[in-house]
Amino acid sequence: MNAVFSGSFDPITSGHMDVLTRASRIFDHVTVTVMHNARKQGKHLFPLDERLEIIRQATAHFGNVSVDSFGGLLVDYMARQGQSVIVRGLRAVSDYEYELQIAHLNRQIGDAETVFIMAATRWSFVSSSMVKEIASYGGDISEMVPRASAEALRRKYADVYAERAQSQQNQPSPGQGGPGKS
């Protein structure tokens, strides 16, 4: 049995990778599908082609995972691909309430079943928007995203990371004294 794991993945996080890893053990094949919503054009940090490339790099080690994109209704994409199972990751109860509504709608309009996989506790606080926020200030996001996402974020915010590195080099080391120390 095959499944579709859909989302905007802007960028893909370690939580997404956790869910995908476990889904790849359950299903024969998992297609990671990146949503392309024309109404959200320009609202993503990474354009569609870059998100697809980041995900391809992050998932290259999987033998049963492919990457694709779609626009429109997920159930229409699934029907064209002959798929009937959607994988969705959950972090918290608040995710469940939203995802439950979507799962019911997808079953109603497209006869698609949704399988929920709980993200590991260590990723329950990680979201793409939080990662982008931290990266926009030059923070360390290396544990929160796969290497391909971290590299893409560092390129996107290269000036911020360079500025932060420079300011940290200018800080006195502990025990070296600093302002007000003799």
Task: Describe what you observe in this structure.
With 182 residues, this protein is α/β, with parallel strands linked by helices. It has a domain at 2-124: HUPs (Rossmann fold). The chain has 7 helices and 5 strands; from the N terminus they run βαβαβαβαβααα. It has helices at 14-26, 48-58, 74-81, 93-110, 128-136, 147-156, 158-169; strands at 2-7, 29-35, 65-70, 85-90, 113-118. It has a 5-stranded parallel beta sheet. β1, α1 (14-26) and β2 (29-35) form a beta-alpha-beta unit. α2 runs antiparallel to α6. The longest helix is centred in the middle third of the chain and has 18 residues, at 93-110. The N and C termini lie far apart (70 Å).
Using the 3D structure, state the CATH architecture of the domain at 2-124.
3-Layer(aba) Sandwich
Multimer state? single chain
Helicity, as a percent range: 40-55%
Major sheet characteristics: 5 strands, parallel
CATH topology of the domain at 2-124: Rossmann fold
Catalytic activity: (R)-4'-phosphopantetheine + ATP + H(+) = 3'-dephospho-CoA + diphosphate
Domain Cytidyltransferase-like: 4-133
Main location: cytoplasm
Site (Transition state stabilizer): 16
Brief account:
Helix content is 45%, strand content 17%. The chain has helices at residues 14-26, 48-58, 74-81, 93-110, 128-136, 147-156, 158-169, and strands spanning 2-7, 29-35, 65-70, 85-90, 113-118.
